[in-house]
Amino acid sequence: MLMSEFGSTAADTSTLGQWSGSSMLDQDTEKLLRTNGSHGKMSDFHFLITGGYRPEKNNLVKYVVSVRSEQERKFFGDNHFCGGAVISTKVILTAGHCLYKGTSRIKASRIRIVAGTPRRLQRTDQTQIREVSSAKPHPKYSPRQLKNDIGLLLLKKDLSPDGEFVQIITLSSSSPPPGLKCTVVGWGTVIQFGPTPDEAVNGDVAVNDKSFCSSLEGFSKGMICASDANDHEVDSCQGDSGGPLMCNSIVVGVVSFGAGCGEPKSAGVYTDVSFFGDWIKSNSSTRNEVAVTLSFVLIHLLMLLIHLSIYVY
């Protein structure tokens, strides 16, 4: 599955500009990726499910949201540009590069979250659309590199999990071991430079060992990589960026980048969720939630003081 125009979620920069609709990069991002990157070049990189499948009942898509620009172009769903994972009723986990257009941060007011929609272009009674109050890329993420490629979207209004169409997913507390079977889900293009699908697609992969991952250009600390040793075409791709890599219904990674989509002897690279666990937890509260918590504590302290005063007298 593949990436997009609105955020820095793109594709092979040697052939940029060939897509239409939500898969085309903005010119600033295209220029940036042609000339920069963690090794000074990004000519073969994608922010990447190619080779995927659609199960009869997709039990994983309930954890995934479509990250979209604020306005549709012509019809519902044509403004999808990234994926994300529901980690609380008010917080979406995504990639840092999804929150940038070129070197500029995308304003939270310009982002919408759509949950409960296995089909990108179809609005149903289960569809939940939310505005974003805060878009938080990791403070050490740079649009000129791919390190610390993680971000959070805080919603103005809580999602309503129903267990079938929308559900909160657990964050991994440790790096996944090599060989662990996982699945990536998204609405990215199903073939490189191909069209963006309507229905969410799954891709089954296995976590690779660090020695193999370390041989990939751009791979560094805080990343994991995964692929299908029997079918190299199974991979994440344009439009899948920011979506979750899930193992046993636990999110272990965030789709970040890869050398092509489903290229031989390569793998998709994902941000290691456990590596950024402390940052995720410390940045997942809104100001209102903090204020409510403080008020709750103060009220209880006041009640305790009143109780003690009565007891003393």
Descriptive account of the structure:
The chain is α+β, with helices and mostly antiparallel strands and 313 residues long. It has one domain (1-282): Trypsin-like serine proteases (Thrombin, subunit H, Beta Barrel), CATH 2.40.10. Helices cover 14% and strands 27% of the residues. The protein is built from 4 helices and 16 strands. The strands form 3 sheets. It has a 6-stranded antiparallel barrel with strand order 11-12-13-16-15-14. Strand 5 and strand 6 (104-105) form a beta hairpin. The longest helix has 26 residues, at 287-312. The protein is globular, with a radius of gyration of 20 Å. It starts with 26 loop residues before the first helix and ends with a helix.
